Amino acid sequence: MQQSVESLVRLLESYRGRDKIIRTVCYGSQLVGGVLTRKAETDVSSQRLGKSLLLFSAQLSHCRTVLRLFDDLSMLAYSHSYGLGASDEDKGIRWISVLTNVADQLYYPCEHIAWAADAEIIKVKSDKWWLFCTVLWGTSLLLGIIRSLRVLLLLKRKLKRQERDEEGSSRQTGLHRQIRGELLSVLSSAADLSNAIHWMPPGLLWAGRFPSWLVGLLGTTSSVIGLIQMSSSDS
């Protein structure tokens, strides 16, 4: 018990860990709040609690938006360090990663403008800027899925070669672990991409059709996967 509490404290003390915890609680609150408001037609107390959880979720989402005001430089540093990728890296993965970095880099200033417009700091309409954010986020997620699928293809080829050459089991175990990690990444990005499409203008696929509980379920799924991957990476 004490070890679990200490792990949680360490997670909350890091910016990346705290953001993932806030994200998980945010979507989890939306999931539970959405479920409660659905059955609230016959239960006033459930309706009240559900609405409170949805408001709490919205405030946590706003909190994450404010915290991201300071993420531009760290993203720029990462993009600069990656550059055009290592020369020995797969060419397809390199260019997908570069395009992903561009989409991620453009996302932040668009979100800052949208936030500032909502806060009435600047006199522009925020709608189109939030739309730009959603398009850039969805583009980044789609590129991430394509990248993971490409990595999976290369890992499976490598695994088959090792099995054919009867190389050490430790190497094969490492490849299996990487394959599981990429599959989790695909699942996480697919869940977030589904939400991104939901927040697009009506008329595009299922845009605007998801109930709150489904948005919360998809977001919670991707958030929990992110926590699992972060824990595995730290280990």
From TrEMBL:
Segments traversing the membrane? 129-155
Top-level taxon of origin? Eukaryota
NAD as UniProt keyword:
no
KW Transmembrane helix (keyword) present:
yes
Entry GO terms, CC = peroxisomal membrane
Principal location = membrane
Instruction: State the compartments where it is located.
Output: Peroxisome membrane
InterPro entries named among the record's database cross-references: PEX11, PEX11C_met
Task: Give GO terms for biological process.
Answer: peroxisome fission
Q: Which residues form a coiled coil?
A: none
Key words of the record: Membrane, Peroxisome, Transmembrane, Transmembrane helix
Q: What is this protein called?
A: Peroxisomal biogenesis factor 11 gamma
Q: Which organism is it from?
A: Oryzias latipes
- Which gene is annotated as encoding this protein in its UniProt record? PEX11G
